[in-house]
Amino acid sequence: MNKTKQIQIIVVAAVVLVIGFLLFKPVKGLVNEDEKTAEASTSSQADASAAQFNLSSVSEAAKRGLNPAIVNEITDLEAKANKTEGSEKVKIYQQLADKWNDVEKAVPQAYVYEEMAKIEPKFEYWLKSGNNFRKGYTNLQDTTLATALNHKAIEVYQKAVDLNGSSLDAKTGLGAAMVTGTNNPMAGIAILREVVQADPKNLEANKTLGLFSLQSRQFDRAIDRFKIVIEQKPDAEAYFYLATGYENIGMKNEAIAAFQKSKELAADPSLSQFIDRRIEELSK
Questions:
Q1: CA distance 153 to 111
Q2: Which has the closest alpha carbon to 209: 194, 225, 233?
Q3: 183, 39 in Cβ contact below 8 A?
Q4: For domain 53-215, which CATH number applies: 1.10.645.10, 3.90.1150.10, 3.40.910.10, 1.25.40.10?
């Protein structure tokens, strides 16, 4: 099985686990508007969560289960970085980030790029840090770590936007992180809408807006968003969300077709069983 197919299976399996939670979880700042202290409380909790983690702690956690030879290479680079300063330290950090990328560990990559940006505050370092923080918290089951990473993503994306306010990638990342990581999701939605106004086909912005539409039970809007996503990236995850939108407005035939496409693209037995049950239910 190729790497892309494996990633699709993992992603859609996670989607299956969280889809019910997504649809019935109250939307912060939209559903529970009477909870006036919620935003301050969440911000404080996010700060506390973020303070629990740093490059050293996430690195040690990420090393578990890796090939010992790779662990030694990473540890050696970390030791070299600790002995240097300035541009030389940034060069070693880049090697370290590349190593983490090779083993598909986004979280330590995020912290490494943040350290690089602190030394040389370049837009690309802040953006790469944000992208990896966001990748790290997406579908993460450890809620404490996910909250911390989401908080960090907002922080570093904001620095990227401050350096380059015209970057749609940075604004998309910031908007998406604000939707999931604050009690004011509408501020993030507003940023994402700015992105799609400038670039109507923007994949990440449309995907995030689609997910928010599902969560806020605006299924027609979700369907429109995921159609745009599928035009550019027809993967199992997007079809699954499209099917969910169709299912919730009673368009059974369209939902069945989209579920079948998701099943075909993922080609995973456990997901196939879940989708078969959904299709059977829809076919009654």
A1: 10
A2: 225
A3: yes
A4: 1.25.40.10
- Phi, psi at 173, each rounded to 5°: -60, -45
Residue 118: name the closest of 155, 149, 144 by CA: 155
The pTM of this model reads 0.82
CA atoms within 13 A on the CB side of 274: 20
Cβ atoms within 10 Å, residue 87: 9
Which residue ranges in the chain fall short of pLDDT 70?
1-50
Are 99 and 73 within 8 A, CB to CB?
yes
pLDDT at res. 18: 45
